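notes to self, project folder thing:

trying the whole complex as one job this time. last attempt i did each chain seperately and stitching them together was a nightmare. two parts in total, labels are on each line so i dont mix them up again. if this works i'll redo the older ones the same way
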Amino acid sequence: MTDLRDQFARLLDNEPEAPYDIDRVVASGQRARRRRTAVVAVAGTAGAAGLTAAVAVPVMTLGGHDDSVSLGARPPAHSATTPPKAHCYLVSGTPKGSKHNLMRLVRSGRVGAEPTVKTIHGGAHAHRVVMEVCSPGTTAGAQAGGADTSTPPAGPPYRYSADPAAIASRLGAHLEKRVNGFGLTITYTRAFAQESSKLDSGHPSYFDGNVDVRESNGSGDIGVQVTHEVTQQVPFTGECTAADNCTETTLPDGSVVRTGQVQAGRGDVVLTAEVHRPDGVVVQAQESNYPFGPGATAQSHGDQPLTLDQLVTLAEDEAFTF
Amino acid sequence: MSLADEGAFRAFAIARRPALRRSAYLLCGDWHRADDLVQTTLVKLYVAWTRVQGGGPPDAYVQRILVRCFLDERRRPWRRESPVEFVDLDAAAERPADDMLDLRSALTRLPRRQRATLLLRFWLDMSVAQTADALGCSEGTVKSQTARALTTLRDLLGDPALLMEESS
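result (full assembly):
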C-alpha cells in the first residue's frame, strides 16, 4: 500500500527558503486589530492609534446635530437633490486615489458641491494622504473630541433570525435585481451560499454569490460577499496599500468604505468596494472584466461592468445583510 | 495586546511557521501563494490571539484558519487559479516519469475542498471528526469527500494501492 503522507512529504523536498519577517506579521496584525476596533467604535470615539502612513484611523464625526445616528442604523443615502446634512468624512489613500474619493463624495451629494477639505496627514508628494472632508457648516476636526478612549468597545454581536438558506436566497435575488437594475444582462449565476464552515456559534462565516454579465466587448463578473467582523473571514483586513490602489473613507455613521483595484495580469482587472458597517456586517462587492462561469476561458474580456461609484453603491446597499 | 501576549504570539508563529508553510504549499501547489496564505493566516491569528490563548492550544485553530483562508481565496478573483493554467485532463493518459510531478498535477485537479480534506486527514493526521470541525461540514461529508478524492488520485496516478481508505 502506498502511503499518501510519504508522497506528500516528497513534494516538499525542494522547499525554498522562507521569506518571512515576523515583525511584518505583527505589524499587519496590529493594523488589523486597530481597524477592527475602529470600525466598531461608536460615534465620538476616536480610534486607539494615531494616523500612520499606512492606515487612517477613522474618527467618527457625528454630534452637534439633531439627526444623530445610533449604532447600527445608517442614515438614508442623500441624493444629489437633497441638501446634504452636515457631516465629515475621512478619506485616505494615495494622493490620486484620495482625490478620486473626494470627487466621488461630491458627486454623491453627501458633502455638497463645495466641501471643506483639510489635509490631516501627508501632502501632494506624500506616499499616502489623509483628508477630512466636511459638508458646509461643519467645522473640520471639531466633532471628534470628548470620548473616552481608554477602553475599546466590544464588537457588535453577530445576529440573524432567518434560516441561512433563506438568507442566501434573499441575497441572491437581490444581487440579480441590482445587477439587472444597472442595465446588465446576466449570463450565469452562482447562487449565494455559505461557502465556508460555521463558527462556534453555529453562524455561517459568510455568504457569497456572483453573476457573470454580458458586456459590449465580452463578459465580466460581479460578486458580493456578506460576512461579519467576528468571523475572521473579512476579506480586506490587510494593509490598505498603494499597490492595490486602496482608498479608505469613513462615513459619518462610522462605516468604513475601502476601494481597491488590482491589475491581475493578462488584461485582467479586478475592482473591489468593501464596506465595514458599525453593526459589524462587512460587504465586499467585487467585479472583474472577465467571467468565471462555465466556459469562461472561451469568453473574451469585457469592460468593467460597473463604474467604481456603482460598485460602491452596491456594497453600501443595506439589503446585503444577514 | 500585552507585551507578554505578543511575545507568546511571536514564539508560536516562529515555531509553527515552517509546518504551516508546508501545509499551505500542499493545499495550493505554489510556494509564493503558500507564503501569502501563511502571512494571512498569521495576521488573522494575531487579531484573535488573546481569545485563542484562553481556549487551549492554538494549533488546531491556526490550521483551521489556514484551510479557511485557502478556501476563501475563491472569492478573490486575482488569487483564483485560472482554468487555462490547469493541466489538460487528457494529458493524464501520458503519465510523466516523475511521480512527484504526477502527484502535484493530480492534486491540482481535485476540487479545493477535497484537497483540503486529504491534507487534514493524511498530512495533519486529523480524525474524521476533527476534519469535519475544521471544514465546517458533517463527518459523512468528510468520508465521502475523502473517498472521492482518493478514487480520483488512484485513477490519475494509476496506483490502485494508494492508501486504501479506512472503512469507518
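what i see at first glance: Chain B has seven helices and no strands.
need to look closer tmrw
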